[in-house]
Write a structure and sequence with these properties.
InterPro entries: WD40/YVTN_repeat-like_dom_sf. This protein is of the alpha+beta class and 617 residues long. 29% of the residues lie in helices and 21% in strands.
């Protein structure tokens, strides 16, 4: 599995959309923001398990579940246009007529049976038309709607072009999930809730497509005009363009909000609270009191987190200052144990990022540094992640600088050398040999490059006829384990095949199950054995030259597998996992088949994408 840094991208793209949905449900901007932040924080804490599926759908289920679970009390009375509706009725109409979900999907995200959803929707429509007729002043139907205006050539016109709905999208409000489900080229490839190919999208107008610069009345007119041709609705009576336009106008009252920073700050804070709490428990507990003290301190941690998450009126939490570590000196003898990202709403100039947008390094002495002039996170222009790799001895860093070059920095000497490779607008993969002498970079394309830091020479691996290759692991002697994927049309039952080879020659390559390299791999200290994880979460050892599986198959605990980290002895390998809240390391003995949690301090601070450096023996 590729390590993901794309949670900030998801939050930036879709945060305002969830806030508008929350505003329709709660009727209050502050409570809507709080509901959206709570929702996205919960999703972010289990991001590794949802990011490859339909995170929009997961987030909507979380949002509606929190609302209907009375975690956020609904607004009532005349303060909110939907105040006359009961919570379930309000959820039913918002999910279908604002979020644009077909009944099956609306039932899934709200947790209502289809029959209940239909009944609540019908009653809600009747109630709204009787209680708030002012919401439908210019209601039209597909039969009496005015003809659609001719396409305009003026690019400045927000409704110009053959499809006014598509041209009226606000980039700040996030990409149109319907385009992504169809394979569009948006900044992030996530399936929308209606991304199931068996379900045609009903929504011509959703919270994801409201343009901030176009008046709500124009939206309502365009939406009503295009409704008949845009949706495939079996029952015409089940749709209500007037209600849809009314919800869009109401949702426009939600101020645009940036939720990335508060969500990421809360996720990071919980991780640090847990680490500090359990450290205190280990110092204060003895004998039989360990379990009791740990349980009590865990409860205290929850209370501290809850209290720190409470909002004080008039206080802007997005401006809370943080302690900024010193810049990494030219030379550093203290090895780096791990690195992590700091988060901020605006990292500033990409060529000179603000301190909050730079990598943070934690050394063996406990001192923290920041990597100056090097951005962390992702490139907003290309959407590619900005990687960092730390050698296992903690003395070398590999990263992409602000000019698009891939460099390796030796900390004790301060020397910096460049990998001779051309940057590409996709997420790169960095791998280092255990001793840090060799560093590889590939883009999942036809070329990979490996730098020998001692000689400064870059060696290249090329795919056959442009096929995609990936450097899975690098040994201390410079040998590389390379996988190559090629499309085929002459192998029964396969659209593509994956082969693996050790070294630069194609001789000796063998075919491998592509699922075995999903979580990466690691070469043993002698360079003969490759540790991999199967799709059913079993650790296996494979002969790197023949592909023969040797030793035991060790089943991991039922948590999300993130990646194979490294070998720590001749028989033991570390695997990073995720338990929906925290990342941890599992130590697996490939000879005996035993698996235990790696009890090392860095595990308490580990995140799902934190690069690891020097670990204790």
């Amino acid at each position: 599995m590729i390590k993901s840094h794309e949670l900030p991208t998801f939050l930036a793209n879709y945060g305002p959309s969830f806030a508008r949905t929350a505003y329709l449900l709660t009727g209050d901007a502050d409570r809507a923001r709080e509901l959206a932040v709570d929702t996205l924080t919960a999703v972010g804490r289990r991001w590794s398990s949802v990011r490859w599926g339909q995170p929009v759908s997961v987030a909507l289920r979380e949002l509606y579940g929190r609302y209907l679970g009375v975690r956020v009390q609904p607004a009532a009375g005349e303060d909110h246009p939907l105040g006359a509706l009961r919570p379930r009725a309000r959820a039913a109409v918002v999910a279908q007529f604002h979020d644009g979900l077909p009944p099956q999907q609306a039932a899934a995200v709200t947790g209502l049976w289809i029959a209940v959803l239909t009944q609540e929707t019908q009653q809600a429509r009747t109630t709204l038309r009787a209680a708030r007729p002012d919401l439908f002043p210019t209601e039209t139907t597909p039969e009496d709607a005015p003809p659609r205006p001719a396409p305009q050539e003026d690019p400045a016109d927000p409704l110009a072009g053959p499809d006014p709905r598509k041209e009226a999208i606000d980039p700040a409000a996030g990409p149109d999930p319907r385009e992504e489900a169809a394979g569009g080229s948006g900044p992030a490839q996530w399936a929308a809730p209606w991304g199931d190919p068996g379900l045609a999208p009903r929504a011509a107008d959703t919270p994801w497509t409201v343009h901030a610069q176009v008046p709500a009345q124009v939206h309502a007119q365009v939406h009503a005009q295009d409704h008949a041709s845009a949706w495939d609705v079996q029952d015409p009576a089940a749709d209500d363009p007037g209600l849809r336009a009314a919800l869009i106008r109401i949702a426009a009252g939600m101020p645009h909000v940036h939720l990335s920073e508060p969500v990421l700050r809360r996720i990071t804070r919980r991780r640090r609270i847990r680490a500090a709490t359990w450290t205190a428990a280990s110092l204060a507990s003895v004998g039989a009191l360990v379990a009791l003290t740990a349980a009590g301190l865990t409860a205290v941690a929850r209370n501290v987190e809850r209290a720190s998450a409470e909002r004080t009126p008039g206080l802007d939490y997005t401006q809370t200052p943080e302690q900024v570590p010193d810049a990494l000196p030219a030379k550093l003898s203290d090895p780096v144990r791990y690195a992590y990202q700091s988060y901020c709403q605006d990292a500033g100039d990409p060529s000179d990022p603000e301190p909050c947008g730079q990598w943070r390094l934690s050394s063996a002495s406990g001192k923290e540094w920041r990597l100056p002039g090097v951005r962390a996170g992702y490139d907003k222009t290309s959407g590619a992640t900005l990687p960092l790799a730390v050698s296992q001895d903690g003395h070398r860093l590999a990263y992409r600088d602000t000019k698009g070059a891939y460099v390796v920095r030796d900390l004790p000497t301060g020397k910096v050398k460049r990998i001779d490779v051309r940057d590409q607008p996709v997420s790169p993969h960095l791998r280092t040999s255990p001793n840090g002498r060799f560093v590889s970079v590939d883009f999942g394309a036809s070329d990979a490059a490996t730098l020998d830091f001692e000689t400064g020479v870059t060696h290249h691996d090329h795919g056959d006829r442009g096929d995609a290759i990936r450097v899975l692991a690098v040994h201390d002697d410079g040998s590389r384990l390379v996988t190559e994927q090629k499309d085929v049309d002459d192998v029964p039952g396969h659209a593509s095949i994956t082969t693996m080879r050790l070294g630069g020659s194609a001789a000796g390559a063998f075919r491998i199950d592509p699922g075995l390299v999903e979580y990466g791999g690691a070469l043993s200290p002698d360079g003969h054995t490759l540790a991999l994880v199967t799709q059913d979460s079993k650790v296996i050892a494979m002969d790197a030259r023949t592909g023969r599986v040797t030793g035991r198959r060790t089943a991991l605990e039922d948590y999300e597998v993130l990646m194979v980290e490294r070998w720590i002895s001749a028989d033991e390998v570390l695997v990073r996992q995720w338990d929906d809240d925290y990342a941890f390391l599992t130590k697996v003995n490939v000879r005996s088949g035993t698996a235990v949690e790696y009890a090392e301090e860095v595990s308490e601070w580990l995140d799902y994408d934190s690069p690891l450096g020097a670990l204790e023996d």
